[in-house]
Design brief:
- With 504 residues, the chain is of the alpha/beta class.
- The chain folds into three domains: 230 residues, TIM Barrel; 84 residues, Leucine Dehydrogenase, chain A, domain 1 (Rossmann fold); 136 residues, 3-Layer(aba) Sandwich (Rossmann fold).
- Helix 16 links the parallel strand 15 and strand 16.
- The chain is elongated, with a radius of gyration of 27 Å.
Length: 504
């Protein structure tokens, strides 16, 4: 088979809307899927016209409710709609549907035979939203009732191991075209890497409707091409990624893929979402992923699976980067470098020695900050909701620690020359100032504090907004993210991105 195709699913209520979307994204896609079950009854009667209105090959799909679609009519009315849409009055194949999608239990021989006779390829599909499909190779083979269909199976995995199994079983199929897709956030790699599963195509959705399809793991065609450089992905492409749970921060993904593109490397950086860290490593081992960024909540848990660790990882007991070397997973921590460089830049090169600094939080990022601040000679107090976690870090570096709640205000007042906010509170918020979006909601800024919030999405968090209104100097975590990501790239590729930037 050739390179996997990109198929954009159209779910507009009118043919006019679907035509506009096809024209908007046509340079990013190879074909479209017309979901006629989303059309108004009036437009359903005119489906036959659609292929002549666009410049791309088209799949006709009329999905029933039981299969996740919107068609609620009888089997007879659906069959009639298929017959109307596939009426073969036009001998110009470009004006006919190139494909038609029939569920595995659709057995109207007259329509099937006519489709094959007129060169329309049949996609024979099966969808399961309840769990993984076992014995994929056997199932796909049985779905080829005439021997000419392209069988398609899409399912919702229960875990990343189900997605690994998809790639494993797909590698055994070499004698016919097929489509395999694991839906949901855990199944996202199957949409990005059909070149590794030999899947005939991958499905995307227009940006205009992506919010409605995110739960299925859909991506828009522009992001697929411009972020992941999809058309360049082959089995020779080096794989890297970011693992976290339950979601992936897209800024990191965009940043690393831009680094690869700028350096003209045949590599791609993908999200690997899993609720079980051991499954992440098994998946990475099977696909040959060479390195992973590690985000919340796995910065500590990942350490139990490493064969080697850098001194920084051993010291702070937190790992945000793993590299496969000599068949061993080696743990690194680039948060330290990112924190140090961004702090020095934030302070405009001023020394932090003897300055009183409050660290908010006691997770992996707080550990990196504490390690750096000890090196820089700052006087630190760590504030955290779970006192025991703060104590473990503080006692290691001879810092103070205190419970993070309204009662800590008198203590906090003594450590506010610099406030370093390391928790995820405020991340992905709409910027509204509220108790749930602000870890220091009880503290009144005076305007003398310097606030460094490790959160970078949104650009201005609720706590930053309050600090700005009080006249404080503030900074978000984007520079830290950038610096640590640059170091990750260097570790991944054994190249220096920083030197490359200097030479431009």
């Amino acid at each position: 088979m050739g390179h996997p195709l990109v198929c954009m699913t159209l779910t507009g209520s009118s043919l006019e809307e679907d035509v506009k979307l096809t024209k908007k994204y046509e340079k990013y896609i190879d074909l479209v899927e017309l979901r006629a079950d989303f059309l108004t009854p009036e437009d359903q009667l005119n489906v036959r016209k659609f292929p002549s209105l666009i410049s791309k090959p088209c799949i006709l799909t009329i999905r029933r409710e039981m299969d996740g679609g919107k068609f609620t009519g009888s089997d007879f009315s659906r069959t009639t709609l298929f017959a109307r849409a596939l009426s073969f009055a036009d001998t110009d194949k470009s004006k006919n549907f190139a494909y038609v999608d029939f569920e595995d239990d659709f057995n109207v021989s007259s329509i099937q035979d006519a489709a094959l006779a007129f060169g329309i390829k049949i996609i024979r599909s099966f969808h399961d939203m309840k769990g993984p499909v076992q014995n994929l190779r056997e199932r796909l083979s049985k779905m080829r009732k005439t021997g000419y269909e392209i069988p398609k199976i899409a399912f919702l995995p229960r875990s990343l191991s189900d997605v690994e199994n998809l790639f494993r079983e797909a590698s055994q199929i070499k004698d016919f075209d097929f489509i395999l897709c694991a839906m949901g956030v855990e199944g996202f790699p199957s949409r990005l890497l059909p070149a590794f599963s030999n899947s005939y195509l991958t499905f995307v959705s227009p940006k205009e409707v992506i919010e409605h399809t995110k739960f299925l793991g859909h991506i828009d065609p522009m992001s697929l091409q411009e972020i992941y450089n999809f058309n360049s992905i082959s089995k020779e492409t080096a794989l890297y990624g970011l693992t976290a749970w339950p979601t992936i921060e897209n800024s990191v993904v965009q940043m690393q893929n831009k680094f690869f593109k700028d350096k003209n490397l045949n590599a791609v950086y993908i999200p690997v979402v899993s609720s079980i860290v051991s499954e992440t490593l098994s998946f990475a081992d099977y696909l040959g992923i060479k390195g992973l960024s590690v985000d919340t909540p796995y910065k500590e848990a990942i350490m139990y699976y490493l064969q080697e660790q850098t001194p920084e990882v051993k010291e702070i007991r937190s790992c945000n980067t793993i590299i496969k070397k000599n068949n061993k997973w080696v743990g690194n921590n680039t948060d330290v470098n990112g924190t140090k460089k961004s702090l020095v830049e934030y302070e405009e090169g001023k020394k932090l020695k003897w300055k009183k600094v409050a660290i908010i939080g006691a997770g992996g990022a707080a550990k990196a900050a504490a390690y750096v601040l000890k090196q820089l000679g700052a006087k630190v107090c760590i504030f955290n909701r779970t006192l025991e976690h703060a104590k473990l870090i503080a006692e290691k570096y001879d810092f103070k620690y205190y419970q993070l709640d309204a009662s800590c205000t008198p203590i906090l007042n003594d450590y506010t020359e610099v406030i370093i906010q390391t928790t995820s509170i405020g991340m992905n918020s709409d910027g509204t100032i509220s108790k749930k979006n602000d870890p220091l909601y009880f503290y009144e800024f005076t305007g003398k504090e310097m606030l460094f919030d490790f959160v970078y999405n949104p650009d201005i968090t609720p706590i930053m907004k309050r600090a700005i209104l009080a006249g404080c100097k503030v900074c978000n975590g984007y520079k830290m993210l950038e610096y640590q990501a640059q170091m990750q790239f260097d570790l991944f590729t054994e190249q220096s991105l920083e030197n490359n930037e200097k030479n431009k």
